[in-house]
Design brief:
By secondary structure, this protein is mainly β. The protein has one domain: Metal Binding Protein, Guanine Nucleotide Exchange Factor, Chain A (Beta Complex). Helix content is 13%, strand content 35%. It has 2 helices and 10 strands. It has a 7-stranded mixed sheet. A 3-stranded antiparallel sheet has the order 1-2-5, with no helix packed on it. A hairpin with a 4-residue loop joins strand 8 and strand 9. The longest helix is centred in the last third of the chain and has 11 residues. 24% of the residues are buried.
């Protein structure tokens, strides 16, 4: 499977043997992503080939995170030691195959974000202002 950052400057290819993914709720991941959690796919380091190299942020004494320095997209997580690494689910070109199997770092999980099934759903096309902005900018809606 292939994937990469938002602008396309960083690309990877990964041999993915499983559809298993997980959500990390630890404070480091919350801060690194600017979000309530990160959806990860765990892979052997040897299963990931960088087609164009990311930059790396040493986010703690025990780990580093690949990212694109051009667009800022965070791409994953890797302990300095060990044979595995994580890639963000949404950085894959087709992330639809992945299924969350567990939660990690739950001691700092923001519980009110856990179950959102009762919230109303809105499509991008429900906002005419947003549609107009995209149409005026590039003549189509984003992929």
């Amino acid at each position: 499977m292939q994937g990469g950052c938002q602008c396309g400057a960083v690309r990877f290819e990964a041999e993915v043997a499983s559809d298993d993914a997980y959500l990390c709720h630890c404070r480091m991941c919350q801060r690194a992503s600017g979000n309530v959690s990160i959806a990860f796919v765990n892979l052997p380091k040897s299963a990931v080939a960088w087609l164009s190299d990311p930059d790396w942020y040493h986010s703690s004494p025990i780990a580093r995170r690949p990212f694109c320095s051009q667009c800022g997209t965070p791409l994953g997580f890797q302990y300095h030691e060990g044979d595995t690494m994580d890639l963000h689910v949404a950085t894959f070109d087709d992330p639809s195959r992945f299924v969350p199997k567990h939660h990690y770092g739950v001691e700092t999980r923001l519980e009110h974000w856990r179950d959102t099934t009762d919230l109303p759903d809105y499509k991008l096309t429900d906002s005419q202002k947003t549609v107009d902005l995209w149409m005026n900018a590039i003549g189509k809606l984003p992929d």
